[in-house]
What we know:
The protein is α+β, with helices and mostly antiparallel strands. Helices cover about 30% and strands about 20% of the residues. It has 16 helices and 24 strands. The strands form 6 sheets. It has an 8-stranded antiparallel beta sheet with strand order 8-9-10-11-21-16-15-14, covered by helices on one side. The chain has a 4-stranded antiparallel beta sheet with strand order 1-2-3-4, with no helix packed on it. Strand 15 (about 520-525) and strand 16 form a beta hairpin. The longest helix has 17 residues, at about 220-235.
Amino acid sequence: MILASIQLETKQDYLDLFKQINQPLRQHYQGKARIMFGSNGVGYGTRIAGIEGFARMLWGAGPAIGQLAVDWQKEIREGILVGTDPQSQDYWGDLHDRDQRMVEMPAIALALLHDDHYLWRQFSALEQDQVATWLKQIFAHSCSDGNWQFFKILVYQVLVHLDVEVDSSDAEAAMIKIEQCYRADGWYQDSARGREDYYTPFAFQYYGILYSKLAPDDPQSEVFRQRAREFAGQFIHFFAADGANVPFGRSLTYRYAAVAFWVAMIYGDIWPEKTAVIKGIINRNLRWWLQRPIFDESGLLTLGYSYSQLLMTEPYNSPTSPYWANKIFLLLALPQKHRYWQTAETELPQVPTKKLLAVPHLLASHDAGHTVLLNAGQPGPNYHALTNEKYFKFAYSSQFGFSVPRQNQLKEEAVMDSMLGLQTIDTTMTASRGGQNIVETGMFYSRNNVTDVTQTDDYVASTWRINNVMQARTWLIPLAGWQIRLHHISVKQTCVAYETGFAVADSPDTPGKVTTTDHSSAFRGPAGFTGIVDLTPQVLAQKDATIDGFPNTNLMTPEIVALPGRQTTLTAGEHWLVTGVYAHADLPHATAKWAQQPVAKLTDDYFEVQLAASKVTIKLR
């Protein structure tokens, strides 16, 4: 598929894009009401995954329904009828509590509304009753107390618009639970045990804006619209000038669903004066994705991030899950004369070089087109796949993403980028290096939860405890594009501290070069520069711990990655480490930055770090 060259100006351009992305799905019907392909497993089984495949196409096919070919319309109409018919072999089934089919119901329901109820009007009265009966099952069962509550709310609103009699009590209870998820600044926590991540923009905010269109006279609608305006000022800091969004948290295989929030802003007419800016954010992000190998040879979206990569996926990701990204095609519901189609996109506006995003405990940093999120960490239980990697690394990058491990044995397979690992010196393993067996400390513990989070406009900090032997408090400071880390580490026996910067592609076809000194490790290659330096005022005995991380571990590249690292042995007691990290895809820019390194000062009372005119001081007591 050659999609990157598609123009993104007119309504026809977006319709063509939707068709090219979704047309391959039509070759994989199983019966008339399921679409499924591939051989990967999923936590809710392939039968329900087939419903997901059919329904997720509808996030775009619904808004586009009147613009699709007659045979495509017929497939959708017949699929909905047999899927909701208990007598059909294609029946989607009866729901149970916390059922994945609830997730797919809003796309099916909303498809009935688009284009003046185009699909709904083609059903007989008996068929309408059948479809409504299947949808109303959602009100008889409990679901997760996070963004899933919106599924009940949206299905209820659709049924009301279709003049279906339905009790409002369950939807009203769901709205109360949604309100309990709200934090501040437009952010939602995805249930009491959840976190703040991309589910705020592509779920809570997206659905809230849809609700405001379905129930414009409800005072809650204006609440949702105001929250969307507030959130826009936060979420813009997740994006870089080249269109990339910073990968952080779970469900990243939904890819360009990252801009679904901006699409909803246009659909909801919430920020009309910013239409050109929003169109630029949407289009640059789409182009960024379409330039990457996210489709297989037959044109199907793959599981993964910037390439096909099962390692980073969730237990609830089936082969059809990535089509959640079709949410962006809500744009196709806009009329032909809408200002969006008449407006030319503009560049990303100038934003402050750093911005505290207090609710998710992130401090955004912008450096010549590179966006980095410094992360204090969010307290909460670890119940999703790879929580440490997706929520607890020190930093996440629009250029270098982050890596996920294949094991926690060798450093090369753990690929602990943007982390500090601690381990007692007596926990060893035998590694083969340079043709020789080497006994070394291994299986490092990293930050997996936090307490005592502190946030200012200049830094974020938190404490993390591994066990009774090892704990640390870490301050993260953005400074003129650099990332400064201050660690106060307490250990009760001799331990090894292993700290890293960002991982950068180091293909054997075009290898880069590692350079080290007594206090620094750096890599330069075609994909960019990455370096880490010890800035501790007191001289520490360190050694280089740079590794080549295994292929298919980094979200941004399938290649081997160079990961600069430093390793320090800590005796029992308290220790202070000061680390500087710098990385950028622009080699000349990075070389100039690396040549001017920050200077740190550490006393019992305060810590100070300075680079040219930029200075940050932190009181320690």
